[in-house]
Each structure stands twice: as structure tokens, then as C-alpha cells.
Amino acid sequence: MKFAIQVNEGPYNHQASVSALNFVRAAVDAGHEIFRVFFYHDGVNNGTRYTTPPQDDINIVKAWSELAEKHNMDLVVCVAAAQRRGIVDEGEQERNGKDGNNIAAGFRISGLGQLIEAGIQSDRLVVFGD
Amino acid sequence: MSDIKKFMYVNRTAPYGTIYAWESLEVVLIGAAFEQDVACAFIDDGVYQLVKGQNTTELGIKNFSPTYSALGDYDVNKIYVEKESLEARGLTIDDLMDLKYEDEDDDWAEKDSIHVVSAAELADILEQQEVVFSF
Predict the structure, then answer these.
(1) Structural domain boundaries of chain B?
(2) Which residues of chain B have a CB within 8 Å of the CB of A80?
(3) A128: nearest CA in chain B?
(4) Looking at the 3D structure of chain A, how many domains does it have?
(5) pTM listed for this prediction
(6) Do the chains contact at B31 and A81, CB–CB below 8 Å?
(7) ipTM for this prediction
(8) Among A29, A87, B3, B91, which one has the highest count of C-beta atoms within 10 angstroms of its own C-beta?
(9) Distance between B129 CA and the closest CA of chain A, angstroms
(10) Inter-chain contact A120–B3, Cβ cutoff 8 Å?
């Protein structure tokens, strides 16, 4: 089965992103396809490489990056939500005249259309959040 | 777009206090360009999103409620409001914005977009959906 995943909450503040990680791992292990993971609302905070959790804690951002690399997974951060919350890639840095960027490996910033398309193309959309 | 799916946006939160309602409306507006079969549901505190006469001046937050009246122009005209949620908050349909759309299949007659439905009816409607977004 082909899944689209929506993550609506930031890491650490809320269980949603770790539950999404666990779901995505289990789905891949069971042979399913993840069409896309879309990060919305505070979920965009899953995509900053400046996240520095204590050493004895799970590094959620790194876990997403590793998943993306291992399974060539499409991790998309909503551009409108990202701009509000200061998640920046090279393109956004240039467009908005920022002095740096913080997007984590394996993530890309794109529009809400990517979420709608994921809903259309997938067999199931699973939303993680409150 | 080759295949048309039944899209449902479920709105459960009050319009202010958190950003879920506003960012949900942004998804609905962007999604309208994809010409899917779209419906919206408003339940729990989500019913407050449609209350008329919203004034956010003292909150210091943008009042985005006028945007709902544009939904009809985006072909988003199936708006279901749960009766029990209204009643629990002392609200009736008269407290809500008068959202309309023009029905192109009926000589552009102006019709109501909002339908007050029971929880049981809404459950049936949700059962028929193919893609359910939850905000």
C-alpha cells in the first residue's frame, strides 16, 4: 500500500513526530511504500539541522534524515509554515535575504500542493498530531 | 488531474489560540486548485471558526474569518457543522456566517454552503471520504 504521512507537531514538544517515525519505519519494514512525508504547522521544526538534543535522548531530526537517505524518502516541509517558523533552505535564504539556512539533510521545502498531491496519489493519508 | 477523490477537511479547534484553524484554511484554499471533490467539517471548538462578527483587535492577531466567505468561489460548498457541537456551546446556525455559493448546475442560483448535521450523519459522511485531513 502507498502511504502519505502528515506530521503536524514539532519534535520533543509532542509525541506526533516520533509516532510518525515509528509508523513510517514499520510501514517500510512491512513492504509498504511511503509516497511522501509532509511536515506542517509546528511539524516543520522536524526539519532543522540545528536541533541539538541531550546525548542520552533520541535525535529525531537525525532519525528522519537517516530514514530519508536509507529509503530515498521524500520529506517535504511546507514553505508557508516554514517561513513563519524560521526553517530555511538555500533557496529560501536567497529569496528572503536571510544570513543562513538550517534545513536538515534529506528534507526539502515546497508548497502545500505537495500535501494535496500526496493525498491524491496515495492509498491512505495518515495524519499525526493532536 | 485524472482521478477525482473525495477530500474532507475536519476542523476541530477554535479559530484563535492556536494556528491550526488558519493553516487548515490555507490548505483548503490551495487544495481547491486541484479540483477534487472537497468537503469541510466543523466539530468541537472548530464550530467557533464559523461564528460571525469575529473581532480580534484586542487579541493582536489577524482576523482571518472573512476568508471563509471566499470558499464558495473556490467550489468549496459542502460545509458540515456538527449539531451537537453547536448545542454544547449554546450556538445555533444563526450565530454562524452566512456562507453561500452559486450553483453552476442550477442557473447559478445562490445556495447555502453550511449544513448542520448530527454526529451520526457526520459519521456517515466521513465514512464516504477517501482523504481525510484533520486539523
Answers:
(1) 6-134
(2) 23, 26
(3) B134
(4) 1
(5) 0.94
(6) no
(7) 0.90
(8) A87
(9) 11
(10) yes
